[in-house]
Amino acid sequence: MMKRISVIIPNYNSGTTIGKCLEAAFSSTYPDFEVIAVDDCSTDGSIEIIKRFPCILVPFDVHSGASRARNAGAQRATGDILFFIDADCILQNNALSLVANALVGGGNNVIGGTYTAIPYDDNFFSTFQSIFIHYAETKKNEPDYIATHAMAINRSLFIKSGGFSEDFLPILEDVEFSHRLRRSGHSLVMCPDILVQHVFNFTFTKSLKNAFRKSLFWTEYSLANRDLFTDSGTASRELKANVVSLCISLLLLLISFISVRVMLLYLLPFIIGFNVFLSRGLIRAFYQTKGALFAIGATIYYMTVYPLAIGAGALTGLRRYLFSGGKI
Known about the structure:
With 328 residues, the protein is α/β, with parallel strands linked by helices. It has helices at residues 18-25, 46-50, 66-76, 95-102, 124-137, 155-161, 173-183, 204-225, 237-259, 268-278, 280-290, 292-304, 306-323, and strands at 5-11, 33-39, 56-59, 81-84, 89-91, 109-115, 151-154, 187-198. Helix content is 49%, strand content 15%.
């Protein structure tokens, strides 16, 4: 028997993307679905764009955050399956069919999809981010978490779980939700064929700001959750080793400059080479997606500039965690 799917989209000032998102959702080839858009008190007029589409609109009077918006969408849903995406995601037209097939016989599972390797806006920094996330999220069939840019779950299980925590950090509610479900005995399953195309609109500055913000909150959460060194999606062991590698390299350069001990610099090729070896899967993904020239540029960015933002975010998250007395 075919199951009805409820596509749930939280919207907050996403006027530049929500129209593309809804147009793609309603282009789905799956025959039985509904789209629920929850507007989190937008001020940019995006709610008027939503009203052009035949979706269920749930408007908020007060800005309340993505967790509450997703929970409100689930409460209005009539589908057997809930499929959460974001307002800046372009749903592939076969994605709902793949979701339905993935949940056949797997009602106790949480199913995840991921970003297409090539984003909607195919510039260097957006493509770097999309390849990075696609690679990190699809490394394991049973990932550490399922992201809400493509998360499918039976409505009965979602209701039983209590939904997303509304008293939490501004982001990572999907990570906390995934960990809570897994501790309750449910499986997290990655289905890499379930794809959404993301609209990043990243520049150099936006890329680094995003890295800093994600690292800050991820560090806070990981310290509280006692899993700082877990290989967890984009917070992979490779990325953590990449940050440590850059820090050690910069420290060696500083010591060599101050003490005039050039011999220390001979260690740099070994450190860089080991880091390249650890990151070979991501580098291969850069190459296979966009070719050699892009792979060279993306690898240099990943190993020299990107970890600076990650490291700064981690230190800020550590400071916030310590000053909060271990509370998040």
